[in-house]
From TrEMBL:
Presence of the UniProt keyword Metal-binding in the record: yes
Protein name: alpha-1,2-Mannosidase
Cofactor: Ca(2+)
GO molecular function: calcium ion binding; mannosyl-oligosaccharide 1,2-alpha-mannosidase activity
Lineage of origin: Eukaryota, Fungi, Dikarya, Basidiomycota, Agaricomycotina
UniProt source species: Steccherinum ochraceum
Length: 628
């Protein structure tokens, strides 16, 4: 390359050769990159005596040389390191001829029968539409009209050993074109987690290449959603024209929607070698990491052009939930080398524990809510969504997979306590309804915290400290700190012990949305709690939920959502969401299986319950994507 016009000529021998050595080091010509700086430094060196020049040369070589060598060694170590194996607790063992083994095997088979009932109802009355309307027994297209329920259920069929149903679906999948009319748009988030995730998981389990081909086709057709100024994906995209749509709030994207595509696209990048898949979703993650927030409290809304925060709401509910899930699971999926995702997870979870976890005023149930962050401390809404019941399972998974370098012993305890307490509350919200199924949203009472001197986890607080604002508000972390400073009386922190159901009278909360939408989050957490703790209560609770589903939601052809969990019988809603087959029944089946077909030290579930195998980036991939 010819020298830059502004670069002065410097001889390789004779006067000035020493200067040239200073500016050419490690194969990089600093004169070419920083010509003005080079000129100033060159004049400074030439003004020194010859002996001083050699001293300056030595310093100029040693200092950057040390940094250069250190960087190369560190980078080589990071690129070639192999993640140590995970050591999750093995599932409790029951002898194959024991009554316990037979009991849980029979219960898993009952879930399989329920799945077949739901799927056959869909195939008979709704296919090739997206979902079954189980009351009028017709199909409906609410997500692109590409046969959603079939694609979403593929990996569940494989896991349950339903090979006839799986093979019957493959010809339909092979002919999918993902076409849309020009005026229609595929919702990016839902299409990625359900269709793309379903195809990738089914491929990973079966090795049927047609599934990967269709996943690659769909991944390509959805890529134009990233053609925004910020790089955050748009709300929707037309898979034929590439045109984008921007949802019901133009210029606004939800945190959950832009941060819940990374697992699918990174796995697809690894399978196909197509770098644009990785680069697009990683750019979106970088925008989220740069978002200016206080104390790690990410907003639920971002600006599609600038990526800036558009509100001050911190939440793990509908607009944010899976974003936090994917922070940990990206790290797990690629064998725990993507430190940027891990650091974002740790920062976010610390903020969640500190600002969103509360104890109810009289029964001291632990719950997670959302909060307005313009105040200090943030102001809680005290709403608790069924969607947020994913959090205890995520915390338990993280506590058992994060290394000591990432999670101190005390923080690990906090994560496990929070997981136990939140999962207990998710269970109690099912147990206390007439239908035995959880409402979609409750609101806990905003009254002063009541101390129970007979309860060692809260009765220890000294009288003079009981009026402190944070304690009266029920902020969980403040109560935990008081409990720890008092010597951990009772051995169980506030909000963690098993609560007793209250079937009548005051319950500390009111049902704000009484529907049951066949949602999976509670049983997902029961499954993860069972797999990480081995405590049988989570299986029994899952069985109670399944029995309630059978009793309250079953229709002549399949299953239906309920209008009101406080009434028995309750009106059925004319819907059976595809996630009922992709997640709810899958997690219940895995909860009851005596073996472990999807071990958590080798597989990671996306937010739609689709299982992806953990993989390792090659050295070339880590170099190309700067993963070190």
């Amino acid at each position: 390359m010819p020298p830059l016009a502004s670069t002065p000529h410097i001889p390789l021998r004779g006067p000035g050769a020493v200067d040239r050595l200073v500016f050419d080091f490690g194969g990089v010509s600093w004169i070419r990159i920083y010509p003005r700086l080079a000129t100033v430094l060159q004049m400074f060196i030439r003004s020194r005596p010859r002996l001083s020049r050699f001293a300056l040369l030595a310093v100029a070589l040693i200092i950057p040389g040390s940094f250069y060598v250190s960087h190369r060694v560190y980078r080589h170590h990071r690129l070639h390191r192999v993640a140590p194996p995970l050591h999750l607790p093995p599932p409790p063992y029951n002898h194959p001829h024991s009554n316990e083994h037979k009991l849980w095997h029979s219960r898993a088979e009952e879930v399989k029968v329920a799945f077949l009932r739901a799927y056959k109802g869909y195939r008979r009355y709704a296919f090739p539409h997206d979902e079954l309307k189980p009351v009028i027994m017709r199909g409906g297209d609410n997500l692109n009209g590409w046969g959603l329920t079939m694609v979403d259920a593929l990996d569940t069929m494989w896991i349950m050993g339903l090979q006839d149903e799986f093979q019957e679906a493959l010809p339909f999948v092979a002919n999918m074109t993902f076409a849309l009319d020009e005026a229609k748009f595929a919702p990016f988030f839902e299409t990625v987690i359900r269709y793309l995730g379903g195809l990738l998981s089914a491929y990973a389990l079966s090795n049927e290449t047609v599934l990967l081909d269709r996943a690659d086709d769909l991944g390509t057709k959805l890529l134009p959603a990233f053609n925004t100024t910020s790089g955050l994906p748009a709300n929707g995209v037309n898979t034929v024209t590439g045109e984008m749509s921007f949802g019901w709030l133009p210029g606004t994207v939800m945190l959950s929607e832009v941060a819940s595509c990374q697992m699918e696209y990174k796995y697809l990048a690894h399978l196909t070698g197509r770098s644009e898949y990785f680069e697009k979703v990683e750019r979106a993650m970088n925008v989220i990491r740069r978002t200016s927030v206080r104390g790690g409290m990410l907003p639920t809304q971002l600006h599609i052009v600038s990526g800036a925060a558009l509100n001050h709401m911190f939440s793990v509910g509908a607009f944010a939930d899976s974003a936090f899930e994917y922070m940990l699971k990206q790290w797990l999926l690629s064998s725990r080398v993507e430190s940027k995702a891990l650091n974002l997870y740790l920062r976010s979870v610390s903020a969640i524990l500190e600002n969103l976890l509360y104890l109810s005023p009289t029964r001291h149930l632990l719950y997670v809510t959302d909060a307005e962050t313009t105040t200090d401390p943030p102001t809680p809404s005290r709403r608790f969504e069924h969607l947020s019941c994913f959090l205890p399972g995520l915390l338990a998974l993280g506590a058992h997979t994060l290394p000591p370098s990432a999670l101190s012993p005390r923080d690990r305890e906090l994560h496990l306590w929070a997981a136990e307490g939140l999962a207990n509350t998710c269970w109690i919200l099912y147990r206390e309804q007439e239908a035995g199924l959880g409402p979609d949203e409750v609101e806990f009472h905003n009254t002063q915290f009541k101390y129970d001197d007979g309860n060692p986890s809260v009765g220890y607080v000294k009288e003079k400290r009981r009026k402190r604002e944070g304690l009266l508000a029920g902020r969980w972390m403040e109560h935990v700190k008081e409990w720890e400073s008092a010597g951990r009386p009772g051995g169980v922190p506030p909000g963690v012990k098993d609560p007793k159901p209250v079937m009548k009278g005051l319950r500390d909360y009111a049902n704000k949305r009484r529907e049951y939408f066949l949602r999976p989050e509670a049983v997902e957490s029961f499954y993860l709690m069972w797999r990480t703790t081995g405590d049988r209560k989570w299986r029994e609770r899952g069985w109670d939920v399944f029995q309630a589903i059978e009793l309250r939601t079953r229709t002549p052809t399949a299953y239906a959502s309920l209008m009101n969990v406080q009434q028995v019988p309750s009106q059925r809603l004319d819907e059976m969401p595809s996630y009922f087959l992709a997640e709810t029944l899958k997690y219940l089946y895995l909860l009851f299986r005596e073996d472990d077909p999807i071990p958590l030290d080798r597989w990671v579930f996306n937010t739609e319950g689709h299982a992806f195998p953990m993989f390792e980036w090659t050295v070339d991939e880590r170099t190309k994507y700067r993963i070190y």
